[in-house]
Amino acid sequence: MLLYPEKESRKAETPKFGKGEAKDLVSFLNFCKKFSSNLDETLIKKAFQYNVEANKNLYRKSGDPFYTHPLEVAAFLIENIMFDNEMIVAALLHDVIGKNEFYKLEDIETEFGNVISLIVDNVQRITNLERREIGNIEYFRRLMLALTTDIRIIFIKIADRYHDMKTISYLLPETQRKIAEDTMQIYVPLAHRFGLYLIKSELEDLSFKVLDKENYEKIVHKLKMTKKERDEYLRNFAKPIIERLKEMRELNENNINFEVHGRVKHIYSIYNKTLLRGKPIEELYDLIGLRIILDTEEESYCEMVMNEIKHIYPYIPETYKDYIKNPKPNGYKSIHCAFIGERDEKVEIQVRTMKMHSVAEKGIAAHYHYKSGFITVDTIFNDPQIEEWANDIRDLLARKEEIPLEKLMESFKYDIFSDEIYVLTPKQEIKILPKNATVLDFAYSVHTDVGNRCAGAKINGKIQNIFTSLKNGDVVEIILGENLEPELSWIDKVITPKAKHSIIKYYKQKRAEKQTQGKELFDEIIEKHNLNQHRSLVLNKCLELLKYSNSDEFYLELFKDKELQEIVDLLVSYLKQNNFKFSFNLQKHSKSLKRILNFAERRVLIGNKAFVINLASCCSPVRGDDTVAFTKLGNVYIHRADCKHSKYEFANIETRRIDFSWDIINYDIFDMGLKFTYHSFDEIFSLVERAIEGRNDVQIYKLVKEDNGLENKVLKLFLKVKNNSIQKKIEEILQEKKVPIKITRIGIEEA
Q1: Number of other CB atoms surrounding residue 329 within 10 Å
Q2: Using an 8 Å Cβ cutoff, are 613 and 634 in contact?
Q3: By CB distance 3.0 to 4.6 Å, which of 338, 446, 640, 699 could disulfide with 319?
Q4: Per-residue b or e along 606-618, where b marks 16 or more CB atoms closer than 10 Å to that residue's CB
């Protein structure tokens, strides 16, 4: 506590809640006004009412109405940390979600905005995690910090935990112990990191009372004064020292200002001290103390001040420690000495400069480690980046003034987990995944077979698909499907190396199995035609005629493609009958052989892989048209670029768009559909006859008239063409004659 110089205090008596909703609202608003000049009273009232309605008829174990808990949390934040409208509103709402079906996170976002809803959401996520039995406490620390997207989340949780600890006696003993252990391991180091030393000490004492009640009561019994009495004793002890320093010539002549801070050791701190020094309480001389901080860089003034105090109170020579001349190994500097006050009470005084104090509080000399018996050396709380971030927050809080939100958020540089997320299994095992990891990534992190059979997941109880991105704190339960297997396209959807490797491994394994089965099918065809001794010759002919670069690709497609199986059977039969020779002259051969040749003609090489060309019947593309092309299961599907159906190919995860050129097409005759709309069939016929006159590259094979008695007639014309030049010719004639006939391309499926 600051004893000198005295600053204008904003101290206000904390309201006692539970006197009724109307009275509690008035008390709370009056309390807020004493701490803030920019109170958003309308917003606070709205949040207060939300809290009251959501917690109506609910009571804590203590018997208090539940709505008073968020009020206590908000009041604690205002009095002990800072006032901020959004933080106070979020504190009032932090227990609203899940109380009943009428209050959801979406409602909070609608009513109070995105910032407040995000704070409430992450506070709720941390609270839900606290209720689970997470075995690895260090993972819990990391997960909690990863959920801290806004520093106000941690402040609300510290205040929430403080009030829970104040009312912990109403809970079952085993519940008390778990909460107290979590407080020591999570909230005590957090409060210390942010310079909330009084809160940290009180949390320690409250937890210590639960975890080691016997030693707690022993220390309380041995202390001569209560904490309140010790605070008062310290104020009286400091008065003559302050007056002496105000008149000290060396300080006045050199314009050196000073601060005097009082410190009363808490129960847990005293307990640690007895363990550390191996002494009984009666022999400790620093249960209460003063810290004098000089605003100068000249270290010699520290000794002058200490000598001046020796003229006021008797000192204990063996307690004099000069850590300025002999700094501690960690860089700590200060002068310590214990003095004897009234009633023979011992008081330790420390004198240091501002620079020494800064090093002691923030730097490597911070006495955090030895006081944190519950914290391991390698905890994330000891990470240098965490320390730097916490220092920035601590500096802002130390100003004891209203902090502009933008300034507070400027200090929020904490991004050590920006590339990671922490997700839980239903059994509370934490999985660390890269940011933007999906349900499928999570499934493969659990087990390869789980990933292979993943059909979706329940994320926090809601069913989601396999490509849903996960967030910190999500509890994920994988839904397994029957007869499912990975798809190669999944590789582009997952981001973890394990998931990608597992999918590729599965694909290669299944591909090998399918190739083996395709080989067995080919052997069955060979055996059926009694050509076992000519197997290699027949296989090479099949690969050559059907444009396969290797036998593995051939076997794979043979297993998957029923039409290919029929074609190969026909081809083997033909080769046997014609002494393994093959003619491409369609005029001389049977219907079955024409089918073989047509199939072979549709196969094209793209890169080093053969595909079967399929011209979409919905839009009848012909040579010269602008197109889009997709591959799927060994086939290429070609649409006109303006075809509305092509977008459905995009939506299919099994398809992949490729570059396409008409040059790879082996055949010359295409089907084209044209639709004409005009009020006279005769004029349409006349136009078409003129366009095809003298041309041997166009053949009309079907036309359909549609006359529904309305003004315009419809003629559908189906042609065999070599390219799209006939359509261009017709459009030229229309433009030349200025005939308003509407012409559009249609698919041959309409024939």
Answers
A1: 7
A2: no
A3: 338
A4: beeebbbbebbeb
Q: Per-residue pLDDT tens for 626-683?
A: 998 888 767 788 999 888 877 665 555 456 778 888 888 877 788 999 998 888 888 8
For residue 517, give Cα distances in angstroms to 38, 262, 641. 76, 84, 38
Residue 408 is predicted with a pLDDT of 55
pLDDT (tens digit, 9 = 90+) per residue, 339-369? Answer: 999 988 999 999 999 999 888 775 443 444 4
Nearest to 546, CA basis, from 526, 566, 576, 529? 566
Token pair 């809803």 in the structure block, residue: 117
CATH class of 18-211: mainly alpha
Of 182, 143, 149, 144, nearest to 165 by C-alpha is 182
Amino acid residing at 612: V
**Token representation of residue 169:** 């006696």
Q: Is the pTM of this model over 0.85?
A: no
- Write phi, then psi, for 132 (nearest 5 degrees): -95, 155
SS3 category, 698: strand
Phi-psi region of 660 (alpha: psi -120 to 50; beta: other; left: phi over 0): beta
What are the start-end ranges of the E strands in 231-299?
A: 258-264, 288-294
Residue 301, classified by CB atoms within 10 Å of its CB into exposed (0-12), middle (13-18) or buried (19+), is buried
Instruction: Give the amino acid at 179.
Output: I
Q: Which two tokens stand for residue 94?
A: 């932090």
Q: Domain-by-domain residue ranges, the chain?
A: 18-211, 227-354, 420-484, 504-606, 609-664, 670-750
DSSP state of 183: I
Token pair belonging to 196: 């909330």
Q: Which fold has domain 420-484?
A: Ubiquitin-like (UB roll) (3.10.20)
Instruction: List 319's β-bridge partners, or say none.
Output: none
How does pLDDT run across 25-70, given as a tens digit for each residue?
999 999 999 988 889 999 999 999 999 999 998 999 999 999 999 9
C-alpha torsion sign, points 330, 332, 333, 337: negative
CA distances from 72 to 69, 164, 313 (A): 5, 10, 43
Report the alpha-carbon distance of residue 583 to residue 625 in Å, rounded: 32
pLDDT tens sequence across 76-130:
999 988 889 999 999 999 999 877 777 889 999 999 999 999 999 999 988 888 8
Neighbouring-strand partners of residue 574: none
199 token code pair: 């809160």
Write out the two tokens for 80.
């002990």
Cα separations in angstroms, 247 against 133, 305, 339, 545:
60, 12, 21, 109
The CATH superfamily label for domain 227-354 reads: Beta Polymerase, domain 2 (3.30.460.10)
Distance (Å, rounded) from C-alpha 59 to C-alpha 445? 42
Distance CA 218, CA 220 (A): 6
CATH of 670-750, one of 1.10.10.10, 3.30.9.10, 3.30.70.260, 3.20.20.70: 3.30.70.260
pLDDT value at position 110? Answer: 93
Q: Average the pLDDT over 527-533 and give the result.
A: 92
Backbone angle region of 429, left / alpha / beta, with phi > 0 → left and psi within -120 to 50 → alpha: beta
